[in-house]
Amino acid sequence: MNASAMFPAANSTSKLTCLAAQPPMNATPLVSILINNYNYAPFLTQAVDSALRQTYENIEVIVVDDGSTDNSWQVIKSYGDRIVPIAKKNGGQASAFNAGFEKSQGDIVCFLDSDDVFLPDKLQKLVDIFDRYREVGWCFHPLERVDNDLKQYLAPEQYSGAPGPYDLRKLLRRGKLGEAMPFKSIVTSGMCFRRELLEKILPMPLEIRITSDDYIKYAALGVSKGYILLENLALQRIHPSNAYTFRDDRPLLRAKILLQTAYFLRRDFPEIKAYANNLFSLGAAEFLQQSQKDDQQLHRLVKDYYASLSFLERIKVKLRERYYLGRKR
After folding, report:
1. Per-residue pLDDT tens over the stretch 275-293
2. Surface-to-core class of residue 157, CB atoms within 10 Å of its CB (0-12 exposed, 13-18 middle, 19+ buried)
3. What are the pLDDT digits (tens) for 51-75?
4. Quick one: 196 and 322 in the same domain?
5. What's the CA gap between 70 and 63, in Å, rounded?
């Protein structure tokens, strides 16, 4: 299969348009909580319960099982009509996001990994923010990192800025983000969106099977103003079964995630191609650092990406790639 078949050509029109200020919301807008799950049956009950036990009541909880081989589906079915269950063949996190969003009806949409837990007042705080700041399309917040049993609190992330509205669109279009974000660990369970914004981003490319939240968050930063809430409104469980954190092949996987995310961001949101190019440079540098770099799919992606660049862009990407390589030595 050639690169163009695996990685389709750019669309003639971009998904990237400004999100207009929203009209007043209903007093109690419907909030959809999308839980994506793959073989996390031991944690799934706590995740679903944390969604159902929110102090904010107008919610729907959609649980997408991505072809688990453990007893996850039995856990999901035990909730009856309290949740919306979706069973699908294994296709990766991106496909689970797409399936959950397609089924959802909420004016506001929050994501929850099935090994994480929402704190009870999370949704009420988010609804208040979206009601107060009509121009924002996303709200991101950090997570409290905890151990496998949700008991031992791990070292917290240090903040470098203040909470409030943020507009980072111009920075991304110049290829920058840097220290603009007051915290760095923007992960699935700390992301929430207006439906109108997610409709500009999803469905997302199925090729990004893991850490698919990177594509969504960078696209959101490039599409819309948003709000940073510096409160830990969820618990992030750090455990040996984390799909990414404890992988033996994490360096190669990180390179793959960066390269795929950059490729599809440039394709779908060309106005932020400068930022995509910088992600690509970092991914290419990390790929070259790996002892096992016989991944032909990634080689084709890299070749295809370079072919899409102008002469000047290619020089800039190569120079930045060399910079990242030198920094890692």
Report:
1. 999 999 999 999 988 866 6
2. middle
3. 999 999 999 999 999 999 999 999 9
4. no
5. 15
Q: Do 216 and 297 reside in the same domain of the chain?
A: no
Angle 222-227-228 (CA atoms, 0-180°, nearest 5)? 105
* pTM recorded for the entire structure: 0.90
N- to C-terminal Cα separation, the chain? 35
CA distance 4 to 19: 31
Cα(318)–Cα(272) distance, integer angstroms: 18
Contacts 24+ apart (CB under 8 A), 311-317: 313/273, 313/277, 316/277, 317/277, 317/280, 317/281, 317/284
Quick one: 55 and 131 in the same domain? yes
Please compute the mean of the pLDDT values over residues 160-184 and round it to a whole number: 93
Domain assignment present for residue 221? The answer is yes
Residues 141 and 230: beta-carbon distance below 8 Å: yes
Q: In 3D, which of 255, 242, 174 has the Cα closest to residue 214? A: 255
110 and 251 share one domain: no
Is residue 9 assigned to a domain?
A: no
Total domains present in the chain? 2
HEC assignment per residue over the chain? CCHHHHCCCCCCCCCCCCCCCCCCCCCCCCEEEEEEECCCHHHHHHHHHHHHCCCCCCEEEEEEEECCCCCHHHHHHCCHHHCEEEEECCCCHHHHHHHHHHHCCCCEEEEEECCCEECCCHHHHHHHHHHHCCCCCEEECCCEEECCCCCCECCCCCCCCCCEEECCHHHHHCCCCCCCCCCCCCCHHHEEEEHHHHHHHCCCCCCCCCCCHHHHHHHHHHHCCEEECCCCCEEEECCCCCCCCCCCCHHHHHHHHHHHHHHHHHHHCHHHHHHHHHHHHHHHHHHHHCCCCCCHHHHHHHHHHHHHCCHHHHHHHHHHHHHHHHHHC
pLDDT of residue 20: 56
Question: C-alpha dihedral over 104, 106, 112, 114, to 10 degrees?
Answer: -40
